[in-house]
Structure formats: structure tokens, C-alpha cells
Amino acid sequence: MRDIGFGVVGTGYMGKAHSVALKSVGTVFGTNLRPVCEMICATTEEGAKAKAAEYGYRRSTADWRELVNDPKVEAVSIASPQWTHREIALAAFAAGKPVFCEKPLGETVDDSLAMVAAAEESGLPNMVGFNYIRTPASQLALEMIEAGELGRIINMRAEHTEDFFSDPDEMGSWRTQKRSGGNMGDLSPHIINAVHRLMGPIASLVADIETAYATRPGPDGPETVENDDQANILCRFASGVMGCISISRVSTGRKMGFAYEITGSKGAIRFDQEDQNALRYYDASARTGRQGFTKILIGPDHPDYVNFCLGPGHGTGYNDQIIIEMRDFLTAIETGAPVWPTFRVGLEVNQVIAAAETSARERRWVDV
């Protein structure tokens, strides 16, 4: 075992989650590389110092360049807004350091292309933070599909729906500003990545994108909402399978509606992140009178679960997903081999989003 110094850019929701993962991953998975929380970066010196003390970092800074170029920072984790990702990542690769970057990879496709080019030219480990698809249940779903347990796949329905903006009187914020990417920039990357992982690439699509509430209250009166609230995407995968994806931040009652249903000739599966420690499975070979979806309770026999808990049904949670992806990032650093999902995988998600936006704007089917 050896220590490896990490620098984290960002101290908010995901900055804290990355910090928890860095401090836990060695214990949970017994990794050969043991992260050291070396430096954390916030927008002010005072804020960075406070978060360093709270999260357990040795040092802090308000300048991400100082973090990237510090010799004791051997790997960089980017947990800041997407419009900052490109510049930080390119500087980190130029400094010879592996990069873990939260989704979406870049603010635009051009940003993502530049980040992929820099990552691949450097030959350094790179990874994007798509954590939801790493649940033991979704890893089991992939195993079942690849093993042919569902037979020939004929359809997929998927959604990422939440309700944090379902109240029209909810105040506007940075999330309703154009550069945040809206619902398509915030929620859609997770479910698009998931369908890619389970079904392969999307070949073509037609999309409808809408801003449900054109204005929201602001400190000085009504403010224009500059991005979207919800979207529907019909798609064809490269395999020929048809699918549909719904994404919404105004879906009343849904708190973490990351869900999918995959139908095959021999069976079907359903998953819902609000019940993330279960996978529903329909076995079409069951005799008449015994048919129906069965709840598979996730436990030690399923991927990655046993590292967290020995008891079936006790469950894993949100932060555990990020610990799993931090294990994968450390594996990439240790072996030097690419580990999914690389920056190129993040680019492919951005390309689907761009195609959906083109489709909605031009009212037509678009090839990805």
C-alpha cells in the first residue's frame, strides 16, 4: 500500500461526497492506493479553510491553479460547476495528473472534445462521475442482460425524474440560468449514461424539450427561466432496439426517479433508485399461475455489496455509489489501464444531449 495525495476542486454537495469517498474507499475495498486528502479548493480563502477543517484536508486554497500545480497533489477531483471543468482538467493533464470529473463532462460538446483529446494525448487515467449506474442492483441488471437471461432485448423505458422545481413559486437560482444546462444538463446525463451502459449507444432520436415554468420568483421580482424543466426522448439504439427516456425536474412526488424497465423475449427487469436495493425480475418461463415480477433483494451475492455489508437486505446508499467509483478511479491510477467510464464515455453523453437539443429545436429525428 502507498498513499496518494488528492486535491478536490469544489466544496459543495459533490465536493463533500468526494471527500467522504476518499476517506472511506481504502477501508471499504482494501485498495493498494490510499487517498490522502491533501488540498481542497473553494471560491474564497475563508470558505476553503472552513471546509478543509470540516472535511479533514491538510490544506486549502481559493485558487484551483495552486491545487493543480502543488507537488503533493498527485490526482485531481473536479466537483465544481460544469463551466469550470474544461480549464481545470486541461491544466491537470498538462501537470501530469489523473483527473476524476463530475458529470456532465463539459459545458458543451466542444468542451468535452477538448477534454477527451487532452486526456487521451496525456495517457493519464481519467474518469467521469456517473454514480447511479454503479449500484449493486444496476450492476446485477447488466450481468443478467449480458448473460442472456432476458433473451433478445426488444424495448427499454427509462427516466430520471425529480421534483425539486415542481413548485412554481420556488425561487430561481443558478440552476435556472442558461449556463447550468437546466434539466438536460443536470439530470439527463445520468440516465443517458445508464442506457448506454445497459443497452449500448443511441444511434438516432427525436426529442421534445420544454420549460414548464417560464418565470420564477427572484429577489427583485419575476425572473426568466433560461433553461428547460422537462424532456421526452424517443430513440433507436445502434442494436436496433427501440427506447424512450423521460427527464424532469418538475415531476411532482418524485424524489429520485432514476428508473428503467428492460423487456426481452425471455424476461424483463425493472429498477427504481427510490428502492435501490432491489431489482424486479420477470421470468417468462414460469408456468401459468406463477408468473409475475419477483423482487430480488440485493445482498452479498451481488456486485460490490459485500464490501459494505455482510447482511442481505441491509442495503447500500448514495455515498456508497461514489465510494465504488472512487475505487474504480484508484484502480485506473494503479494499473494505468482505462476503467469505465472514461472521459470519452462522458463525451458520448454530451453528444446525445446535443442531438436531443437539435431535434427539439428543428422538430425532427437526428442521428447521434
Plain-language structure description:
The chain is an alpha/beta fold and 368 residues long. The chain has 2 domains: 2-132, 3-Layer(aba) Sandwich (Rossmann fold), CATH 3.40.50; 136-316 and 348-362, Dihydrodipicolinate Reductase, domain 2. Helix content is 34%, strand content 27%. It has 10 helices and 17 strands. The protein has helices at 13-29, 45-55, 64-69, 85-94, 109-122, 136-146, 182-186, 188-199, 318-335, 343-362, and strands spanning 2-9, 33-41, 59-61, 75-78, 99-102, 126-129, 153-161, 202-210, 215-218, 221-224, 230-237, 242-248, 257-264, 267-272, 278-283, 294-297, 366-367.
List the helices and strands and how they pair.
Blueprint: E1 2-9, H1 13-29, E2 33-41, H2 45-55, E3 59-61, H3 64-69, E4 75-78, H4 85-94, E5 99-102, H5 109-122, E6 126-129, H6 136-146, E7 153-161, H7 182-186, H8 188-199, E8 202-210, E9 215-218, E10 221-224, E11 230-237, E12 242-248, E13 257-264, E14 267-272, E15 278-283, E16 294-297, H9 318-335, H10 343-362, E17 366-367
Parallel strand pairs: 1-2, 1-4, 2-3, 4-5, 5-6, 7-12
Antiparallel strand pairs: 7-13, 8-11, 8-17, 9-10, 11-12, 13-14, 14-15, 15-16
Helix pairs in contact: 1-9, 4-5, 5-10, 8-10
